[in-house]
Write a structure and sequence with these properties.
Layout lengths: L2 H20 L30 H12 L21 H13 L10 H17 L13 E5 L2 H20 L32 H13 L6 E3 L10 H10 L3 E5 L24 E5 H4 L7 E5 L2 H8 L39 H35 L4 E3 L7 E6 L10 H13 L6 E5 L2 E7 L7 H19 L63
Pfam families: Pyridoxal_deC
GO biological process, one term: carboxylic acid metabolic process
InterPro entries: Aromatic_deC, PyrdxlP-dep_de-COase, PyrdxlP-dep_Trfase, PyrdxlP-dep_Trfase_major, PyrdxlP-dep_Trfase_small
Length: 528
């Protein structure tokens, strides 16, 4: 690698990315290309000779950007966020530059030890019990995603119960997979605000035991940001020797705020706890944090110790002692290799600080509350699940005799809103009803984006409702609100209309200035 070429190209790439963020609102949030579009634009084989960087930038603008769904757009409200920030970007850049593979302590001591320290910092911010800290029997480890973290604890929980029940149960195992019959999905409904009911879980456990099965793990998941009764479920798990994992992938970040910490009360009952710093914590993807009460459960299940991987500081080395042993994170995860992901989390914590991160989260919750108030202010819409954090679940109320209770109506509303390119929403199904999800969490989202999203949903919703015979929405006496939304000339057309050519990064991409915030050492937390 030539250092001067890296300096030149690096500056140009940073400029490219900065310009992208400055003009991000000029692009349709949801990509509107057709499947296979890129095959028609790129050659069938790699170039034989090197090409210049500017040509590559041109191709990114003209061929790649149109196929990007802009997760960092302030008008992105579809899924739980995937945050980006200056600090996270710089940490990711540094990690790529150092390019270490830190699977054991000896392969890069700083990578291992920084991860241990930073995850202890974060655990203390969340006020997790001491048993989750590295100074006790437990500790934290960065995984790729929450799904990966759940798979890790699934394997640990399975092996732990097998050590208790003995080899006779080995014949019941499904190697390298969990068949559907080994998984019980428990239903939730509005009576429990879509949280797991203690009675439902207890009945499922009793049913499995009666059938001669051994339940060994339960974990909650939700599409409405419901919060399960953690303390009660934890005690139930302990009574049946089950592993209890708390998946706080999205909402865990909010629990650094004192007013939301009570949502994880009872965490001391959990065997493991996970949250995604890459969702709502200004840390670029991927950075899913997993804490366990007893790290030996992971090590006994996941350790690999061929001779060539041993190091003198490891417990597996004959001369190592328990007191002086080090962490080898290869034994806390499924893959062997691992990136230096703790760098970006370290930079986020240091460049922003706890107070600013709390303000950042509170601001998103405030914006979601603002959208919720707009929904409830109009009798033609309804919020269908209690809002706890920054997710609002809502729908357009169907006419009384609607055959599918508004399923097609709200499906049409979602399609109409998303096809505009102005905002991007997602959906779920709750109690058989088609529901729109409005998740606030993009770093650049401000009050004006919330108002625009409501105006668009309102206008498209009324247009759809007026097409329904006998709908109260179509009454001639109904008072309507005239909302004008300017169409941006840069939005891609769904119907093949002409679209502007994307030129060089120094010209076209910079043709629209945007009022935006930056998350670079904010001086006043109230500005979030």
């Amino acid at each position: 690698m030539d250092a001067e070429q890296l300096r030149e190209y690096g500056h140009r790439m940073v400029d490219f990315i900065a310009d992208y963020y400055k003009s991000i609102e000029s692009f349709p949030v949801l990509s509107q290309v057709k499947p296979g579009y890129l095959t028609e634009l790129l050659p069938e084989s790699a170039p034989n000779d090197p090409e210049c960087l500017q040509d590559i930038f041109d191709d990114i603008l003209q061929k790649i950007i149109p196929g990007i769904t802009h997760w960092q757009s302030p008008d992105y409200f579809a899924y739980f966020p995937s945050n980006s920030s200056t600090a996270g970007f710089l940490g990711e850049m540094l990690s790529a530059g150092l390019n270490i593979v830190g699977f054991s302590w000896v392969t890069s001591p700083a990578a291992t030890e920084l991860e241990v320290i930073v995850l202890d910092w974060l655990a203390k911010m969340l006020k997790l019990p001491n048993q989750f800290l590295s100074t006790g029997k437990g500790g934290g480890v960065i995984q790729g995603t929450a799904s990966e973290a759940i798979l890790v604890v699934l394997l640990a929980a399975r092996d732990k119960i097998l050590r208790k029940v003995g080899k006779k149960s080995l014949e019941k195992l499904v190697i390298a997979g969990i068949f559907p019959e080994n998984l019980r999905v428990l239903k939730t409904d509005l009576t429990s605000n879509y949280a797991l009911s203690l009675e439902v879980v207890s009945e499922a456990i009793s049913s499995d035991l009666s059938a001669g099965l051994i339940p060994f793990l339960y974990v909650g998941t939700t599409s409405s940001a419901a919060v399960d009764p953690i303390s009660e479920l934890g005690k139930l798990a302990k009574a049946f020797n089950m592993w209890f994992h708390i998946d706080a992938a999205y909402a865990g970040s909010a629990c650094i705020c004192p007013e939301y910490r009570h949502y994880i009360d009872g965490v001391e009952e959990a065997d493991s706890f996970g949250m995604n710093a890459h969702k709502w914590f200004l840390t670029n993807f991927d950075c899913s944090v997993l804490w366990v009460q007893d790290r030996s459960d992971l090590i006994q299940s996941l350790s690999t110790n061929p001779e060539y991987l041993k190091n003198k500081a490891s417990l597996f080395f004959p001369s190592a002692s328990q007191e002086n042993a080090v962490v080898d994170f290869k034994d806390w995860q499924i893959p062997l290799g691992r990136r230096f992901r703790s760098l970006k989390l370290w930079l986020v914590l240091r460049l922003y600080g706890v107070a600013n991160l709390q303000s950042y989260i509170r601001n998103h919750i405030r914006l979601a509350e603002q959208f919720e108030q707009l929904i409830t202010s109009d009798s033609r819409f309804e919020v269908v699940a209690p809002r706890t954090f920054s997710l609002v679940c809502f729908r357009l109320i169907p006419p009384p005799n609607d055959q599918d209770n508004g399923y097609k109506l709200n499906h049409g509303l979602l399609d109409a809103v998303n096809s505009s390119g102005k905002i991007f929403l997602s959906h779920t199904v709750l109690s058989g009803n088609f529901i729109l999800r409005f998740a606030v969490g993009a770093p650049l989202t401000e009050d004006r984006h919330i108002k625009t999203a409501w105006q668009l949903s309102f206008r498209r919703g009324l247009n759809l409702a007026k097409l329904i015979p006998n709908s109260k929405h179509s009454s001639a006496n109904e008072t309507t609100v005239n909302v004008e939304l300017e169409d941006s000339g840069t939005l891609l057309s769904r119907h093949g209309a002409s679209r502007p050519a994307l030129g060089r990064i120094t010209t076209t991409l910079m043709n629209k200035s945007v009022d935006r915030k930056t998350w670079d050492c904010p001086r006043n937390p109230k500005n979030y």
